[in-house]
Design a protein that fits this description.
alpha+beta
Length: 162
């Protein structure tokens, strides 16, 4: 489900809006990216330590208003999620029954779609609210067709940071 509002939290969506790709499903192939900035301390003692000594490819998406995937967590922190439940409908003896089911214990690790300009606004608001940029706030996922549309600059190594 595509996010259109940063203020909506703990929303309940219809089950058909929950996407559960199968392993190795090429339709969902893409790569992880970071939006504008990230906490450089993560390269020393955090989730990005595995990327130490890697080269970075700086690129720009051609279309600003593209939809990307971001973590299911609002700028205010991991206590809430944009979406935490979905409505499942079952039919029994000719009658339809609907009930809400939680996405799971770690629903903040799920992904939601969001326009890039809204994701960048979320990043700014999160930095103001939290005082820093955690990885889950700046991390995004783009699809393969978007990767192919990247306008690339040069490949380089940030020796002072990596």
């Amino acid at each position: 489900m595509s996010r259109k509002d940063l203020g909506m939290k703990n929303e309940i969506i219809k089950e058909h809006n929950v996407i559960r790709p199968k392993n190795d499903d090429q339709k969902w192939k893409g790569c992880f990216v970071f939006l504008e900035e990230y906490d450089e301390q993560l390269l020393k003692k955090g989730a990005l330590v595995m990327r130490k000594n890697h080269k970075k490819n700086i690129s720009f998406l051609k279309v600003e208003n593209q939809t990307i995937w971001v973590r299911n967590t609002p700028h205010t922190g991991k206590e809430d999620c944009y979406v935490n439940q979905y409505t499942e409908v079952i039919e029994h003896e000719g009658k339809k029954y609907s009930f809400n089911k939680y996405l799971g214990t770690y629903s903040n690790l799920y992904w939601v779609q969001m326009k890039i300009n809204l994701a960048l606004k979320r990043l700014v608001l999160g930095k103001q609210h939290l005082g820093y940029v955690p990885e889950w706030l700046s991390e995004a996922y783009i699809m393969d067709d978007q990767v192919n549309c990247l306008e690339s600059s040069k490949l380089f190594v940030l020796k002072e940071h990596i």
